[in-house]
Design brief:
The chain has 222 residues and is α+β, with helices and mostly antiparallel strands. The protein has nine helices and four strands. It has helices at residues 67-90, 97-106, 111-123, 129-141, 148-157, 162-175, 178-189, 196-205, 210-219, and strands spanning 3-10, 13-18, 24-27, 48-50. The chain has a four-stranded antiparallel β-sheet with strand order 3-2-1-4. α2 packs antiparallel against α3 and α7 (178-189) crosses α9. It is rod-shaped, with a radius of gyration of 27 Å. 24% of the residues are buried.
Length: 222
C-alpha cells in the first residue's frame, strides 16, 4: 500500500490517507510491525505529510508499506474503532471491564479485539474496576444502609473481582462502622415493620451478619 498523506490528529493517533480508498484512523500503540516513526517520516516536528511523487516508490521508501505492514495498519485502525466505542461509554460513566466488554460484544466487535483494547485502557488507567467499585459503593451508601454481604453480592454481580471487592469494602468499612449502618437500617425498619422475624429477615437481605443483627436487636430490647 502507498500512503499519500499522514496527519497526527491527537497524541499517538493518526489519519492515514492511502493513494486509493478512504482515509482511516489508528492509534500507534496498537501497531506491532510498523514503527510509529514511519508515520511521521519527516520528524516529529512536522504533523502533515503530503507525498506527491508516488510513481517510483519501493519497499523501504517513505510512504510505501508492504502487505504485512498494511495488515498491521488496518489492524491498528480496527482496534482504534473499538477503543472509540469503548470511550463513548466511559465518557458517560465508570464501567467495569465485564460490563464494558459485554456492551462492545453486543455491538458486534470481535472478542479478541475487545480484550486487547480493554487491556490497553486498563494499562492507561482509563478503565478501572477498582475505581468503579469505590465510586459505586460511595454512591450506593447515599440512599442505602447495607452490610458487607449485600455489597459484596452486588459488586460480584457486576463482574468485579473478589480481591478488588475486599479492598474497596475494607476501606469503606474503616470509615463507616457496619454496626452503626445496621442500627440505621433497623431504625428505618421498625417504623414500618413490627414483627421481629420480618425485621431480622430484612436486615439479613440488606447484608448484615447474624452476629450484628442479634446484638442490635438485643440492645433495642426487641
Amino acid at each position: 500500500m502507498v500512503i499519500r498523506g499522514i496527519k497526527q490528529i491527537l497524541l499517538g493517533v493518526y489519519e492515514i490517507t492511502p493513494d486509493a480508498g478512504s482515509a482511516f484512523f489508528l492509534r500507534a500503540d496498537y501497531l506491532s510491525q510498523v514503527n510509529e516513526e514511519r508515520l511521521l517520516p519527516y520528524g516529529y516536528g512536522r504533523l502533515d505529510v503530503d507525498l506527491d511523487d508516488l510513481s517510483n516508490l519501493k519497499e523501504g521508501d517513505t510512504g510505501f508499506f508492504t502487505e504485512e505492514e498494511t495488515a498491521d495498519l488496518f489492524n491498528a485502525s480496527r482496534l482504534y474503532s473499538v477503543e472509540k466505542s469503548a470511550m463513548s461509554y466511559l465518557n458517560r460513566s465508570e464501567h467495569t471491564r465485564n460490563s464494558l466488554c459485554t456492551k462492545l460484544l453486543r455491538k458486534g466487535y470481535d472478542k479478541r479485539d475487545v480484550e486487547e483494547v480493554l487491556d490497553y485502557l486498563e494499562e492507561k488507567n482509563i478503565l478501572s474496576d477498582l475505581r468503579f467499585a469505590a465510586a459505586w459503593v460511595r454512591s450506593r451508601s447515599l440512599d442505602h444502609a447495607e452490610g458487607r454481604t449485600r455489597l459484596t453480592a452486588e459488586l460480584t454481580a457486576r463482574g468485579v473481582n473478589r480481591s478488588i471487592i475486599k479492598q474497596v469494602l475494607d476501606e469503606y468499612f474503616l470509615e463507616n462502622d457496619e454496626e452503626e449502618l445496621c442500627v440505621k437500617a433497623f431504625k428505618k425498619l421498625v417504623k414500618i415493620k413490627k414483627d421481629e422475624d420480618k425485621i431480622k429477615a430484612s436486615l439479613v437481605r440488606q447484608g448484615f451478619s447474624f452476629k450484628i443483627i442479634k446484638r442490635i436487636l438485643h440492645d433495642a430490647n426487641v
